[in-house]
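Fold it.
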Amino acid sequence: MPNPLYDQLFGQHAGKATPFLYLPDGSQISHADFLEKAAQIAHVLTAAGVKAGDRVAAQIEKSPEALALYAACTQTGAVFLPLNVAYTIDELTYFIENSEARLVVCGTSQREGLLDVVTPLGARLETLDAHGGGTLMAQAARMETSYPTVDRDAGDLAAFLYTSGTTGRSKGAMLTQGNLLSNAKTLVDAWQFTSEDVLSHALPIFHTHGLFVATNIILASGGAMIFLPKFDVDQMITQMPHATSMMGVPTFYTRLLEDERFTGDLVCHFRLFVSGSAPLLAETHKRFEARTGHRILERYGMTETNMNTSNPYRGERRAGTVGFPLPGVDVRITDVETEKVLPAGEVGHIEVRGPNVFKGYWQMPEKTAAELRENGFFITGDLGRIDEDGYLHIVGRDKDLIISGGYNIYPKEIELVLDEQPGVLESAVIGVPHADFGETVLGLLVMEPGCDIDLDAISETVSNALARFKHPRKLLLVDSLPRNTMGKVQKNLLRDQYKDIFTPV
């Protein structure tokens, strides 16, 4: 029996001297060299007692060796669990204990703090640093450069990804080989990747965007990546003449646009820019197209499903939307209370179904049953609507919905108005407690550098544009909005910060 994910992403490149990773120092790693390194790591995993189905947790900096650990887990049949490098020891303790990880790989500086965590669990602890140092690679260097791939099938688990946990304990989304492989193949076709592509890769690889979208697409298509440790404007601009495509979060694009060196000539040979993980402002779309002649392709995905929808590669890429369902994926909008399917134009829960949808939440059968319907549709927790042309619009998260005086208020609708106002760089609208209405609307505005904001004028504009019950009771200027590592505004932090703003003293 074969191992579909390894065979079709990694194994197809065995023995090939074709370039896979271009590194910032000018060196490169071929497919063959990468797979030999991965095979050596696979031997280390086996020697550590890791068997097919065991979890391997990794909190490590981005590096070719870190990526090879993912390949090694796939080849041995282990379940790969990448963890955000910003997590604290307390947070890591939960993930390691909950996942029952057999092996934990961390940076050298984290080793002492994690020893007390893994030892009682009987797990093994190895280290891997950003430059390839540590105990993992020291052992791998003594191993054979080939490894007998372990048989797996499409229904076997390949990875865990933990949700952000903003409304409770993080949930371990179980992703199968079939989930990851089907999505990679679909995206290669949808975005027309080939072996000629060179992707500028500055995303983290502990997240689905950088690992299971960007990396898997390049592996499936046989292309190469300019593998940057993180987003750095200088490095990005230096490497862009050698790339054909890029995937990023909105912050990547706004920061590039702030640099005068980023011009249309610099990217004239590019064929595709993709944005995701957070909404891209319409203004960024316009500025980017005016500067480069390229229109950014925005898409929609999440931890539990990878990618669900995408604006078209050929056709209108409509700002403010995330396009159409990908081939093989069903998307529907349902009423929040009745769960009935809604017609075009109405706002409700976004539900998705397809081969990309995860298997369920690890050791949380109640959560799985509550969010994954028997007919295969997953309740995403996002609110949206499908317009008359079939484009999906994300209105916001269900938990961000504001209910004021019995009215449902969708923050995105107000934010779109606020973002268009003179001097406003970006905005966030949240619901905060109010004695009379239960909740009321608070608008937080970040000012463009060097500009002034007339809050009274903005309030007047909003009053003319939106129904009275949607008007922010107050507008506040803030220096910045809190974001997670993928650029999403953390509205839970804002709600906590401003929860008492209308509470009588």
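The two ends are 69 Å apart (CA to CA).
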